[in-house]
Design a protein that fits this description.
By secondary structure, the protein is of the alpha/beta class. It is built from twelve helices and 21 strands. It folds into three domains: about 35 residues; about 210 residues, Rossmann fold (3-Layer(aba) Sandwich); about 170 residues, Ribosomal Protein S5, domain 2.
């Protein structure tokens, strides 16, 4: 009896089976294992206790690297053709108004078709509520909108919508986390706007890593960005934030999207501030102010009146200044408390302004005014939870500290503006006219400002303007 392995037909069959098995094994060969930092996206072939890129400890997670096709498959890759820049047509009328003026102002005038907007904020700050209210306003204008939640059930979404009093037949909701299902849903419905809440919960089956990992977040954002550009659907991505306040995931995520918005505010404060830190279609200096109520978020059309509503009169350590946020001046109250230090090292606690800037101004006050502040605890706060990062409020900070240290209130109905140099000079500031006009509109009758800015406000009446050249002149004008 001849052996099976000496049969030519059997040998060919075995060879064919072996080759098929090898091809199957090659097709199912797992991708290379890498370690990815969940904070910055740094990749390493071995595990490290500390990320060399961002310095975070125990942030590298094992992920399996695989080759994925571009969104839409290989057939979607088409070579773009260069065109003269003069032939590119612009149509600003395509912006979609949401009906919420504070939100439209931050975006630069409304939604741009095909834009991808990343919205970040602390848990419970009101991101989901804001997104639902925006979609409700769009649905009232006969636009079909889609709200996709990966964290809440439909019953939970319905409870929130009933609480804030929204509902429309054009507002569609679904609970889904699979990227392939979301893409199929969008292709079938073709909504006018879409919200993904949140992007950290979305995952694709093409990757073996867990939802929320760097690879999954990056891949999901890439596919959704492709969807927005191909169909013209504005896509909102709600993102989690880390303990430092930055949007969770790699910084690459912020570079991929068109607009990055931060929703800020304290949990125990009713005011919320929407700020743009990146905007390809508008300014990044605009802010929107909202008030959290039982029926949702309400616009604050006059922030100055809100921030000064609870200000005490003729109290030492309280000064009013004006800050420019985008194109809108806002009056703010600066408060300072100076007291004798109980321990050897005096405390410097600052909220709302740069602590290094306050330390610099305190040093100038000791040198030029003779105030003995090295043995004093100093606390500075901007009321309302607002953050100010412009030097035009320097004179207000110094005035508040000097008022608290001297235990003398600043003269009533006085606004203080100006930047302070290291030699004690009061330097000019920009957009002084709108600041003084806002102070005059709010009922203030006196304004201290740099002397070099006096010529820019000659046409403003009903308010006394006093020019200040050096910090040494401040004490005689404040009290």
């Amino acid at each position: 009896m001849r052996s099976l392995f000496h049969c030519p037909t059997a040998m060919s069959d075995v060879t064919m089976l072996v080759s098929q098995g090898e091809s199957i094994l090659k097709s199912k060969k797992p991708g290379k294992i890498i370690f990815v930092c969940q904070g910055c996206g740094y990749q390493s072939l071995k595990w490290l206790g500390k990320c060399p890129e961002c310095g975070e400890w125990d942030s590298l997670v094992e992920e399996r690297q695989g080759t994925t096709m571009p969104p839409g498959g290989a057939t979607s890759i088409q070579q773009a053709q260069p065109v003269p820049i003069d032939s590119v047509e612009m149509d600003e009328g395509k912006r979609i108004k949401t009906g919420i003026q504070e939100f439209d102002r931050v975006l630069g005038g409304g939604l741009v078709p095909g834009s991808v907007i990343l919205v970040g904020g602390d848990p419970g700050i009101g991101k989901s509520t804001l997104m639902l209210q925006i979609l409700h306003r769009l649905a009232e204008n006969k636009l079909k909108v889609l709200y996709i939640s990966g964290e809440e059930s439909l019953e939970q979404i319905k409870l929130r919508s009933d609480r804030i009093g929204i509902g429309s037949e054009n507002l569609w909701v679904v609970s889904e986390v699979a990227l392939e299902s979301i893409r199929a849903m969008a292709d079938e419905m073709v909504p006018n706007a879409m919200v993904i809440d949140s992007i950290q919960t979305v995952f694709t089956h093409e990757l073996a890593s867990a939802p929320g990992s760097v690879s999954q977040v990056r891949e999901a954002t890439l596919h959704l960005m492709h969807l927005a550009k191909q169909t013209g659907i504005p896509v909102f991505l709600v993102g989690h934030v880390t303990k430092d306040g930055a949007i969770a995931g790699p910084r690459l995520l912020e570079h991929m999207v068109d607009t990055v918005l931060y929703f800020e505010g304290e949990q125990n404060n009713i005011f919320r501030i929407l700020r743009a830190v990146k905007n390809r279609f508008g300014s990044t200096n605009e802010i929107g102010v909202f008030e959290m109520r039982d029926n949702g978020l309400c616009e604050v059309m006059n922030p100055s009146a809100i921030f000064l509503s609870n200000r005490p009169s003729l109290v030492p350590g309280s000064v009013v200044t004006a800050s420019i946020e985008g194109s809108r001046p806002i009056l703010l109250e600066l408060q300072a408390l100076v007291g004798r230090a109980s321990f050897g090292t005096p405390r410097r606690t600052v909220l709302g302004v740069d602590v290094n800037r306050v330390s610099l101004l305190v040093a100038v006050m000791e040198k030029k005014l003779g105030f003995q502040l090295m043995t004093q605890d100093i606390f500075v706060n901007v009321t309302g939870g607002v953050k100010v990062d412009e030097p035009a409020v320097d004179l207000g900070i110094v005035s508040a500290i000097a008022s608290s240290f001297s235990d003398k209130p600043v003269r009533e109905a006085t606004v203080v503006l100006g930047e302070i140099g290291l030699t004690g000079e009061i330097r000019g500031i920009n957009q002084v006219g709108p600041r003084v006009q806002e102070a005059q509109k709010m009922g203030f009758t006196r304004c201290l400002l740099p002397e070099t800015n006096l010529e820019h406000i000659k046409g403003i009446a009903d308010i006394e303007t006093v020019g200040v050249r050096t910090i040494s002149e401040l004490a005689d004008l404040l009290f």
